[in-house]
Amino acid sequence: MLSPESVPVADVEMPASAIARGSWRLSRDDLVAFGERMGRALAPPHVVALSGDLGSGKTTLAQAICRGYGVKENVTSPTFALVHAYEGKHSTVYHCDLYRLRDESELTNIGWDDLLNERALVLIEWPERAGSRLPEEVTHLHLDHVGDQTDVRVLTVGLE
Ligand SMILES: Nc1ncnc2c1ncn2[C@@H]1O[C@H](COP(=O)(O)OP(=O)(O)O)[C@@H](O)[C@H]1O
Ligand SMILES: [Mg+2]
């Protein structure tokens, strides 16, 4: 089981079901370490939904997952383009940020259905904005602030 507290594992591909469900209180370094380990373990096709308030760490986690997945390029927030594509070790990575999505029909313009049908890794910030067009098989990663502490977050991992 891959969890934030598990010892680093070898670079083996693991199914989504091997990612432990639960909640962990994490520093930025811990969150990044978990994201990199998860990226190393993921095999395409795989969709990851990253939810949580502004500044909760979704992009930070997406960047770590990309790094673990072998993306060499600098991963930047796709807030205005809605989606950025990168080449990872095993497939293309699509990093989506739906914060500025006006309605679900706009998803068609960014090639939503096509990228979800590809053998790719798809990371989605603000997944709730996709409404009914979010696929069913998704690994959910949710981040919460902890009171007024600026340096810790609670990561909740769930499969739905
Ligand atoms: N434990 C933590 N986990 C994630 N980010 C943290 C943590 N502590 C502090 N931060 C900071 O919070 C900010 C999160 O920003 P970002 O990843 O862009 O959030 P989002 O994409 O959710 O809006 C970054 O500046 C990051 O360094
Ligand atoms: Mg973001």
Topology:
Elements: E1 22-27, H1 28-41, E2 46-51, H2 58-68, E3 83-87, E4 92-97, H3 106-109, H4 112-117, E5 121-125, E6 139-146, E7 149-159
Parallel strand pairs: 2-5, 2-6, 4-5
Antiparallel strand pairs: 1-7, 3-4, 6-7
The protein binds adenosine-5'-diphosphate (ADP) and magnesium ion.
Number of strands: 7
Name the CATH class.
Alpha Beta
Report the mean per-residue pLDDT as an integer. Answer: 91
- The figure for the number of domains is 1
Multimeric state of these chains?
Answer: single chain
What does the radius of gyration come to? 15 Å
Bound molecules: adenosine-5'-diphosphate, magnesium ion
Q: Identify the overall geometry.
A: globular
Helical fraction = 10-25%
Q: Please, what is the CATH homologous superfamily?
A: P-loop containing nucleotide triphosphate hydrolases
Strand-pairing-aware structural class: alpha/beta
The SSE order reads EHEHEEHHEEE
| Distance linking N and C termini | 17 Å
Binned strand content:
25-35%
Tally of separate helices: 4
Main pleated-sheet profile = 7 strands, mixed
